[in-house]
Write a structure and sequence with these properties.
Layout (H helix, E strand, L loop, with lengths): L5 E3 L12 E3 L11 E7 L40 H21 L10 H13 L4 H13 L7 E3 L1 H12 L3 E4 L2 E6 L4 E7 L4 H5 L6 E5 L2 E2 L19 E7 L5 E7 L1 E4 L5 E6 L4 E5 L8 H12 L1 E2 L2 E2 L4 E5 L8 H9 L4 E7 L5 E6 L12 E5 L6 H11 L3 E5 L7 E7 L5 E10 L15 E2 L13 H11 L1
Length: about 475
Amino acid sequence: MNRSSTARSRSPSVSVAQIALMIGLVGVVLSGCHFPVSISTRASVVPVQRLTVAPPAGTPTALPRNLARPTATTPSRTPPTVEQTERQLRVFRDLWNVVNARYIYSNFNGVDWAAVRTETEARIRAGLADDAFHALMRDLVEGLGDQHSRFLSPDEVAEEEQLYAGAADFVGIGIVTDYNPQAERFYVLQVLPGSPAEAAGIRPHDHILKANGAPLVNEAGEPDLAALRGPEGTTVTLTVRTPGQPTRDLVVERRLLLSAEPVEYRLLQETPRVGYILIPTFFQDGIDAQVRDALRALMRSSGRIQRLDGLVIDLRINGGGTYSILMSHLGFFTGGVLGYLVDRQGMRVPIRARAERIGNSQTVPLAILIGPSTQSYAEVFAGSLRHKGRAALIGQRSGGNVETLNAHFFEDGSMVWLAEETFQLPDGTAWEGKGIEPDVKIERNWDEFTAENDPAIQAAIARLSD
């Protein structure tokens, strides 16, 4: 069936700003993503940042695939068939037409889009293997320069759908990591429950410095994660440092793990009763069900319903996700119109949440933790709840990536996530390229503290206790 240019409704407003290293999962994160360690990199769509799909287990390199992709200009050694070339031309024309009609920037960010059509058709007619063709399409979309839109080959589409379902598996140790380029170190965002990393004593905020004695950052200051990979059942010796403590060596087994990232929750204090929920992503299918369960658990004590006096929602590692999951989460805490998605013609589509009461979730005071990795629909969630008067924002300025991407599929199984709308509050406020300024600033990064002395959580408790 020809699925050419079929839009998937309200897609991920995913940013592409961080390599998601899933170690324990090897991968990368979407329009805002991270790394599970097996190795993995959580998705960023830009190399070394967050929503690029994680490479499958067994991939010989842990670097983002687009650093080693085939050169788009390399002609096929085996001449493509006439049918192959004609199919490539149809896919390209469908892609070109979608961008021409729906891309959010009518000037195409300075790209001569008409000239692109003529030049690209000539290159396709000269003969391209399918992998070189897909690399060429990827380069064209990246060349638009918005840092959000991206083209996926058929294999990448399949991988992304597995990640969305939380069904992708990887051989690894079970941690989600990110990279601090200034300090040239990897650090842990999450440790998967029941994983080898958890058993070995690795915790969120820890720095992963070496694997089998080899630094994970090369002499050029670039990530080099090859030493973390290995067959299932083998072990790796990691040099780990908890912020403020000496380094230690841990032997960790590599095992087959699922890529699903867990919601974390706990009660921070009994009086007043303040809960905490970390929502790692709005991209993974079923994450809203985990948050619903977390809310119910926090509002139950000694077998009876117990209202919360305050709730801290941590979005500091949340790079966005899909519209439907965003709306489920907003509905836990409010209802009604929260803002608009605006296209290049100025058409406004309202974002309207349907309230779902879980205990006193509709009225509990909220403190939402944000930072540079809070992007796309995570920013919409935080900023719209503050505008609604439901939440105070604590932490650092958010990423400033609120363009909404829509999915368009093509007949060869490839697709494009295309930036077509941007978010605005009812008063017209927009955050694209600027980010959201928090109410209480905490200028410390995730890798500079532990869960026990987290300054943003401490500030949130103080705010909620006022």
